[in-house]
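Minutes, project huddle
Topic: does the predicted pose make sense with magnesium ion bound?
PN asked that the exact inputs be recorded in the minutes so nobody has to dig through chat later. Recorded below.
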Amino acid sequence: MKQHDAMYIDGSWRPAEGSGTIEVVNPADEQVIATVPAGSARDVDAAVRAARAALPGWAATAPRERAARLAALRDQLAARTEEIAETVTAELGSPLAFSTNVHAGVPLAVCASYAELAGTHAFEEKVGNSTVLHEPVGVVGAITPWNYPLHQIVAKAAPALAAGCTVVLKPAENTPLVAQLFAECVDAAGIPAGVFNLVTGLGPVAGQALAEHEGVDLVSFTGSTAVGKRIGALAGAAVKRVALELGGKSANVILPGADLPKAVAVGVANVMANSGQTCSAWTRMLVHQDRYDEAVELAAAAAAKYVPGERIGPLVSAAQRDRVRGYIERGIAEGARVVAGGPQAPAGPGYYVAPTVLADVTPEMTVAQEEIFGPVLSILKYADEDDAARIANGTVYGLAGAVWAGDDAAAVAFARRLDTGQVDINGGRFNPLAPFGGYKQSGIGRELGPHGLSEYLQTKSLQF
Ligand code: NAP
Ligand code: MG
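Predicted holo structure (tokens), as shared on screen:
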């Protein structure tokens, strides 16, 4: 795999200040494929200084010029689709077709949307006798996870750049190679030096230094709730803007009038995609008691078709694999019934977990409450719609979800009762322009589309 033994700071690849390194492992065969530098607080400081120095120039650039640079970035990503997909497959382990369609395809669509929005967004509005200016927030510290590694970078960097902000990115230690590839694309797109900077490194070192840096105006974090709470506390203490995209335990609610086979098939596919490492995955399937046994049978049969190493990849790391297997064991201990998969790991090498379906799950069980982040579906039973709404809303999370009913109106009526940021109605498609983000402990703020752009803007009112 192509790699840089350097950080991308102020428009060039420069050596890290320290000598620490991170080994990148291919989770499908457990081989080390690359080594990248582990940045220190000094590297973060150099990157933040570069971003601060570049801010006045970039913030003052005409929106159509920023749109042109983002269009060039989109073209770079498009030209390197194959390389992006191969890189994500090597460091995350997802099957190549999924890497091509989703890990390369979605960031391309998101970058294209911000190339468009940068040129068309109203950065000024009239309110009575005032003109309201929408100005960039400033220097953005972006901290991203490994599960959709390029998407999560682009979902922060593209709106930040469109808004006129400058960026320092600390990507996940497991997936730094696609982040380096993105920095190459930024460079080739002619985005000025210092506007985007990359520091690879460990969360508690480089990530923490970035979250704490007083030269950062907004911290945008995607990852675990535990780390998100710390970052939120740091930002609160410094009166700094913060955006948090955290975990989920989303419900797939199948109402009695729904097309059950379709709802179950789409629901299982949703959970197994990316080996279950999706914050918005519908990991709880809620089925009416009269059709529960039928749904369990359909789900078990659907899950059995996800052959590890073919349709479904490994988990990102040995630690994640062990964590997920621990959850399956916990589910069994608390009374869940395994109808597909189970805690036994498929024959190695590779950090695989068997695609697993748990039946007889009740709302208070750990597997119904906590984010597992693996290919594990819990199926719960409800008595009536009130019961279904209570169970669906009965976790600390509220990121996504689905409702299936006999018609869209019935599904929408139920969706209004859900405490969650997104709901797919009868199998609605992913929309890269729709605001994405959480209710409750799933986070603060929204990404994607015009709502995502607003996160990187602050307002100034001029009175006439
Ligand atoms: P994580 O630790 O929250 O990682 C997310 C990002 O934060 C990474 O870049 C990480 O760096 C960094 N980080 C870690 N500690 C930090 C700190 N003290 N200060 C600043 N930044 C820090 O998540 P994880 O350990 O990779 O995954 C654990 C669990 O989190 C998963 O099992 C899943 O439940 C959840 N998760 C959710 C999402 C999501 O999309 N909502 C994504 C990933 C994980 P390192 O890479 O060096 O740790
Ligand atoms: Mg971590």
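Observations noted during the meeting:
- Residues 203 surround magnesium ion (ligand 2) (CB under 6 Å).
- The mean pLDDT is 97.
No decisions taken; revisit at the next huddle.
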